[in-house]
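Entry 12.
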Amino acid sequence: MSTGARRILANTGYRLLADAGSKLASIAFYVVMARELGADGFGVFTFGLAFVILVTTLGNFGQDAVLTREVARDRSLLDRYFVNTLALKIVLCAASLAIGIAAASAFGISMQTRDVLLLLGPAAVLELLTQTCFACFQAYERLEFIPIALISQRTLIAIAGIVALLSGAGVVLVAGIYLAGTLFGFLLALTLLRTRLVRPAMRIEPRRWWPLMKAAAAIGLAGVFAVVLFRVDMTMLAAFKSASVVGHYAAAYRLLEATLFISWSVSSAVYPVFSRLTPVTQPPVGFVFERGIKLGLALTLPLATGALVLAGPLVDLLYGQEYSDSVGALRLLAPAIALYPVCYITASFLVSQNQQRALLIVYAFVAVENILANLVLIPWLSLYGAALGTSISTVFVAGGFLAFARQHIDYARVLGGPVLASAIAACVMVLLRESFPAAVVAAAVVYVGVLVLFERRLFPDDARAVLDFLPGRTA
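Predicted 3D structure (tokens):
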């Protein structure tokens, strides 16, 4: 296996470790929160987090993607981009948060919800600053530092939050703990960057802000529409339905979000590689793109199948019977679980090849489509309408990005193994659905076995690329 392929797999593994570990901590935190605060309190926290992420969208205006792309090509540019990206994010977020929280207060939100927003707003900003540190690790293809920072942050929040919740803490105190944890995470990521990798210059130069915003404009606007697309459903559901309904939908949506780390992991690993390659390099960028899509789908399709077949026992195990309405919502979100890697990896490909305007076009169209669909689906189907709207919009995003990418994809090669293995695993889950642990373990074993046999039989080169990365094997 080539050094480049080995590096991609290694960085995918590091990112998977970071996000898997952090997601486990976050799931534990949110499960306990849902149980201890009830659907109403959980709905307030979830609404608050969705709101501040939506409001601070301008703070994540594509600057990190530009930093990673440009520094991956020329590392001397880090001094120009790093601290100015941090400063620009702080300025943009401070203004947008002040306006957003003031507007929400004027519309009559409760004092409790306002206090939650005041705490979660700075937390959202700190997470954006942490992502800039991660963008530097990504540009240098040193993703091994991300698990240290991310798992530490999420674990601290989970432990402190769970202890507080079990001691009777309310949603405002929990939001304060979340803020403290994000501050710790940013400081740790910054320390790792400056002591273990590189010490970027800390000169703030406002004259560079406008060129940076201009370079990131298409990516940033696409990001605005993307956040609207993937967060507006929660906000619209809160406008039409009670906090309890929002809490039930949030419980299902959190399980969808728990799978997104796979898409981020693969995308983070291949993006700097995409940035260096072109259609005429060796290997050509299309070669890496196709195998990136295949890797993402092979990791998420069985999870989507599990969400469809085992939604009932999974929700009951994690949240309890109080959240029975979340079962149908999770099943309707299953297609989005499978399609997210297509969206993320193709978006990374388009940006790396300076085709970021395609993201703007697709996300703008689908964001409008999603809002219009939710105006119909949420009053009609409540939380099930929000879930259905999310999956439909994800189909549109994936299809639109692939159309703009204009890359030949051998769909038999990409889909054959994952689809066959998932179908057989689904049959195993159905047969063993009365015993959730047995169904999960048996389906996982069957999925991996069928996938390996299929790939080694029909596409041995792809199988060998993964097997060569396992410990004890030689390149």
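Annotation: The first helix runs from residue 3 to 55. The chain has two domains: 3-409, 413-475.
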